[in-house]
Amino acid sequence: MSLDELREEIESIDRELVELIARRTYVADTIAAVKEERDLPTTDERQEQRVMDRAGANAEQFDVDANLVKAIFRLLIELNKVEQRENR
Ligand SMILES: O=C(O)C(=O)C[C@]1(C(=O)O)C=C[C@@H](O)C=C1
């Protein structure tokens, strides 16, 4: 594969990543509505821990750096919380 082709592959993966981030964020909008209905706080630390543990385990399964993957998930959770706070 040429460098251009490899970069095209990365471009396509990057687009998919953004699409997945958008889908995760859209779910946060629905979660915000459920939490508001049930008078629950936006932050659920136990659930965040579960998400982080799962991210670490998935990273190990795919042989990528667990700490880096967890850092990305920390950002994704923060993005969700910002989105949820804007929606309630
Ligand atoms: O599961 C929830 O309650 C969510 O709001 C989603 C999410 C996440 O991004 O995974 C975000 C904020 C919460 O503190 C916990 C988890």
Explain this structure to me?
The chain has helices at residues 3-37, 45-61, 66-86. With 88 residues, it is mostly helical. The protein has a single domain (3-86), classed as Chorismate mutase (Chorismate Mutase Domain, subunit A, Up-down Bundle). The chain is flat, with a radius of gyration of 16 Å. The site of prephenic acid has 10 residues, from α1, α2 and α3. Residues 28, 31, 43-44, 47-48, 51, 77, 80-81 line the site of prephenic acid.
What does the oligomeric state look like here?
A: single chain
Helix tally equals: 3
The CATH class is Mainly Alpha
CA radius of gyration: 16 Å
H/E series: HHH
The percent range for helix content is over 70%
Give the ligands present: prephenic acid
Secondary structure: elements and pairs:
Blueprint: H1 3-37, H2 45-61, H3 66-86
The protein binds prephenic acid.
Short synopsis of the structure:
Keywords: Isomerase. With 88 residues, this protein is mostly helical.
List the keywords.
88 residues; mainly alpha; Chorismate Mutase Domain, subunit A; 83% helix; binds prephenic acid
